[in-house]
Amino acid sequence: MQALSIRQLTKTYPNGQQALTGIDFSVEEGDFFALLGPNGAGKSTTIGIITSLVNKTSGQVTVFDTNIDDDFSRAKSYIGLVPQEFNCSIFEKCIDVLINQAGFYGVPYRIAKERAEFFLHKLDLWDKRNIIVRQLSGGMKRRLIIARALVHQPRLLILDEPTAGVDIEIRRMIWDFMREINQAGTTIILTTHYLEEAENLCRNIAIIDQGHLVENTSMRQLLDKLHIETFVLYLAQSISSPPKITNFNLRLIDDMTLEVDVAKEQPMNALFHELSTQSIKILSMRNKNNRLEELFLEMIHQPEESKEVLAAKQIESDEHA
Amino acid sequence: MLKLQTSNFIALFTIIRHELKRITRIWPQTFLPPVITMTLYFLIFGNLIGSRIGLMDGISYVTFIAPGLIIMSIITNAYSNVSASFFSIRFQRSVEELIVSPAASHVILLGYISGGILRGLLVGLGVTLIALFFTKLSIYNWPMLVVTVLLSSILFSLFGFTNALYAKKFDDIAIIPTFILTPLSYLGGVFYSIDLLPAFWYQISLFNPILYIVNAFRYSFLGVSDVNLLLALAMIFLITVGFFIFNLMLLNKGIGIRQ
């Protein structure tokens, strides 16, 4: 079953700004799906339409086989939303925020209280349960709105930049928790500016740019499109000039650091063998850039013409489908 | 279908519980000001000035003004509760908690109206207790009392809701009480019988909806009224139904809450 299906979705704001120009994509039940795009691409508008915060101009949105035009209440009962911007009442206690949210979804008080307590424990907010929201730190507020989105046990969880502005420890904690939720069967749609996050967590991906869908594929297939990766090599001893190795273009960044471009089909054994032969010891290495980041930048910096070709291809493939 | 209806009931009670908590949490803003203001009214207009005015419609002045002051507290507090509470959640964007939930628009509206009625009733009860320090009050017509209190607090909660939807800043929710509600209340026969007015002002007063509310409520205590009570109740009822539909339409369209 599809958790979400979007067909020819458009949105034009009253000021004439066309945020979405007829996008199509779907998310399978149980998927961990990344919805990426630069600022102003239309991601939040798409999420807003799915969750009824934004009125669509045209198109179809179906959540677990329920069309939002036919029964939006039912469709909304399946969804949990972690918004990009913090939107809790700052004068309420943390536990009340969760109990109330469950109540709005029709969860009886006793069950709502049990679930609120469970998620407060789970997200390490139990000690803060009776604190009013405005006294929480930024990271705690993020965790609170994640707990709030889960308290009615949604089948589809939409996370709009859930780790924005939180430190690495909390980010990792949130990642682990999201993986756990997904493994338990909840479908997750994630928007993020941390592409490492999307690469690590998501199995499928859609990229939106200026209201167009520019890519919709699996993460693996997308990463396969990357032809060249740049690696940074950290040396054990200093060298004065970059070594000459056939088929590899090595650059000296400083006397202890080398940079090398490696084609996707090119084995790296030869490189290490040659470096070893020249008595250059490698202590460690890393990807210079996040792989998804490379592709993302490539896609959203395509000239307008290429985007139109992509959009045409999308329409063509839909017609064939 | 049944599940969604049950969900809506739970959502409604959640909103009411939330509102009741808010009203009691900020009691220095919700209970204290009307109680102090009305005590001063009874003391100054009722006791000090009222004793010199004599009788109004054959009733002592302090007794004459008591029902008007009680209902004025009820309607202004019903109004203030809904306008302030709903604008506050719009301002903080926590209204999104409600919008993304499956709670139906009429449930949201009924929840906030209930909050307005609750605060109106609680404040009304407090002001009535104060009135009893200054005069004796007995109920002349219970059904009229209940219907008038409910209809008028619903109506003014609905006014407050409309105001909260259109308001852009906190100042906007103070404009209606300051420039419309208070003048209409003072000119709505709280402190005088409109029979005392010259013919022209008498006719003008008949266009003031608060006049009908005050008179219907006064009748339920004292058995006297300046206006046709059936007409008064019919008018309040029709305006209430009209405003309920209007607010529901605004909510369904997402005015003030959706992009």
Derived from helix and strand composition plus strand pairing, the structural class of chain B reads: mainly alpha
Largest interface: chains, residues each: A-B, 32 and 31 residues
The span between the termini of chain A is 17 Å
In the sheet with the most strands of chain A, the strands line up as 6-7-8-3-9-10
Question: Largest sheet of chain A, described in full?
Answer: 6 strands, mixed
- Taken from the alpha-carbon principal axes, the silhouette of chain A is globular
Spell out the helices and strands of chain B N to C.
HHHEEHHHHHHHH
Helix count of chain A, per DSSP?
11
Secondary structure: number of strands of chain A: 14
Note the gap between the termini of chain B: 29 Å
> Beta fraction of the residues of chain B?
under 5%
How many domains in all of chain B? 1
Strand content of chain A is: 25-35%
Domain count of chain A: 2
Please, how many helices of chain B? Answer: 11
What kind of assembly state do the chains in view correspond to? heterodimer
Give a description of the structure.
The complex is a heterodimer of chains A (321) and B (259). Chain A has 321 residues and is α/β, with parallel strands linked by helices. Chain A has two domains: 2-223, Rossmann fold, CATH 3.40.50.300; 225-291, 2-Layer Sandwich (Alpha-Beta Plaits), CATH 3.30.70. Chain A has eleven helices and 14 strands. In chain A, the strands form three sheets. Chain A has a six-stranded mixed beta sheet, with helices on both faces. In chain A, strand 12 (249-254) and strand 13 form a beta hairpin. In chain A, helix 3 packs across helix 4 (109-122) and helix 3 (94-104) packs parallel to helix 5. Chain B is elongated, with a radius of gyration of 19 Å. Helices cover 78% and strands 2% of the residues of chain B. Chain B has eleven helices and two strands; from the N terminus they run αααββαααααααα. The relative contact order of chain B is 0.14. The longest helix of chain B has 31 residues, at 61-91. A two-stranded antiparallel ribbon of chain B has the order 1-2.
